[in-house]
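Let's do one together. I've listed all components of the complex below, 392 residues spread over four lines.
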Amino acid sequence: MTDGVVERSRPRDRILETARDMFHKHGIKGVGVDAITEAAGTNKMTLYRHFESKDELIVECLRATACKAGAMWDAFEAEYPGDKLAQLHAWVRKAADMLNADGRGCDMANAAAELTEPDHPARRVIKELKEAQREHLVALCRGAGIGQAELLADTLSLLLEGARVSVQTVGAEGPSAQFVRMAEGLILSFRGSAAI
Amino acid sequence: MTDGVVERSRPRDRILETARDMFHKHGIKGVGVDAITEAAGTNKMTLYRHFESKDELIVECLRATACKAGAMWDAFEAEYPGDKLAQLHAWVRKAADMLNADGRGCDMANAAAELTEPDHPARRVIKELKEAQREHLVALCRGAGIGQAELLADTLSLLLEGARVSVQTVGAEGPSAQFVRMAEGLILSFRGSAAI
DNA sequence: TCTGGAAGTTACAGACCGGTAACACCCTAG
DNA sequence: CTAGGGTGTTACCGGTCTGTAACTTCCAGA
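Okay, and this is what the predicted structure of the assembly comes out as:
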């Protein structure tokens, strides 16, 4: 009902997009395949013709999310070509936007909280995306001429990760409201210390 | 099987403790009441004589977790009476211990990720605990004579929150490995800026 | 126009879920 | 000894879950 996204496209795409949306809103274990197919305007058989199991659907959803996240870095480069520091600030703004977008945290982190089996196929995707994100951020910091680029990148990573769960637990008026201030302060402070 | 904690005590206590353990390890939606009672060495009827629903059991588990977390602050005061700065450093060490304890994050944050209904009774408990934690940390920072105590407390909060989910997604060798360094650096840096 | 594959439909299997009823048991307080 | 409350046991309810079988319908390309 409220979970639309039923525009006419290929069933597989509709299922994937609908599942992504519903997993995000209601959690993975909180949504059944029947509900997904119904919201996607199709049926269970069609889902199982395109995905061999719910687990594979989950993995494919997370992969799609990772793909969209990857495009973000290209957008920064397109907007501020070569200016890594400007891109870093753009990342901060983008992160703040995500915080205010809705009360749900990061899909990857939420999935990791729900899928507790240590060898669940989704954990691989999650880890890969998080490591890719970290490397992108390190590259930005390094490119901006910041000494201790790894430490700043890791600190900013944890700060954002924490802010996203904080929004989910205490709301957007909690500690996460200060995210931009914290991040900008950290960048400034790290720029102060000598770059090698 | 692997989820023991069946020492002979009152059934209600065993159920509560076993549920806490299993929710922590396997997630809330990943554990059924049958599995809990069996691991607690009792049966479903006894559970439902003490808790009127699974939701109430969840709430009671989170309350117990909140209670244990509350005791932590008293332990700091007992160990370093009056010395708020030492207590703040003790908090950092304690936080680092929690990071290395196991690969699962904060029970409250994980519960918030799973229980998506905005009016779920557990969300109240979660929010209350997180707000209490924040106030305790602010009090420590303020007591340690730090200007911008709220900002430091919020930053440290987000950092720990982020570190706990990072452990869950990329493991203990990821960004969270630098948590102590980040936290100590922040405290030092905030102590540098004038108190008032 | 014919045909083959993709998609929809209905029904079902088998397991598990939260929750309850009815009844037998034991152990302790009086 | 006895009464009664806490506990254990068994069986069950209705619902939902993932996943499948068998069949029909639709539609695009040759």
